[in-house]
Design goal:
Elements lengths: L5 H11 L22 H5 L5 E2 L11 E4 L4 E5 L2 E9 L6 E3 L12 E5 L6 E7 L5 E7 L5 H20 L4 E2 L13 H4 L5 H4 L5 E3 L5 E4 L2 E7 L8 E4 L2 E8 L2 E9 L7 E9 L7 H14 L7
Antiparallel strand pairs: 1-9, 2-3, 3-4, 4-8, 5-6, 6-7, 7-8, 10-11, 11-12, 12-16, 13-14, 14-15, 15-16
Amino acid sequence: MYPRPKSLAVAMFCALLAGGCATTQAAPEPDSGPTPLTASAALGDFGSIDFCSLLAVPGVTEAVPTFESCRAQAGPRTITVGPLAFDADPNLKPYENYPGSVPDGVAIQQSMFNDRSACTRAITFADGNRIDLSVTDGTGDQEARCGVADAAVRSALTAITRHQVGRLTFPDRSWGRVAPCVPLDDHDLDAAAGPNSQPTTGLSGHSCIRGKVSFRLTVETTEPAVPAEKIGGRDARVRVAGAFCLVDTTQPAPGLPGHRELAEISVVETAGTAGEGTCALARGAAGSIFPRLPAA
């Protein structure tokens, strides 16, 4: 005689009990609601964002994508979308009257800094990263500027929520392929950068800071009126901007006819205004870095 199956024995035991055998089920998990939108979820790889794909504003006649932003003209106005930033900006305040909806976890901020010629907005994501946007002109019409800035914010949010963020591609020999922290991690930069300094890459991956030296790679949007000199075998321009001495060089931008890629080195003078000593350090850093850049 075969033994009874275990399931049948359990059923018979339950039948003998007055209350039967209750079955238990896991309680359904509560709906957690929308997921706060982070910059990485919204934008993907920070190093290849085409910021011009976020800008669909009437009147734009030219939009130039750099490695970390988009610069466009709309009549007398210049619109800049980007770069990405994470550091705190004390000039940014909540923009509670933004005329549009925003994804969960996203905040729109505004700045009153330089509001006689610029209207500035920021799209700040749940992880604290933000996209800065600005509209500048010389008309003095702040209301009109801010109307364009709000339109640029709406355009960017539309592209993001529709998953229409474009990507940059970097052809062979483009400086967009260069890892900027590699040439900074060299003993030739010890004097300019400072002792025991370590390189730290920027959010976009196209810039790096080591101590007092920063190095960025991008597409040139304005050409400073500075005479050229030879540094590291390249035509270079040296200029002072406040506490910084900047040295840059350019090459034709592969894949972007009519434009030039820019490599810029800056050294900061921590004791005040930059001078000849600061520029000597910047020239020395450029002399080490520029020969290592690929030629278009």
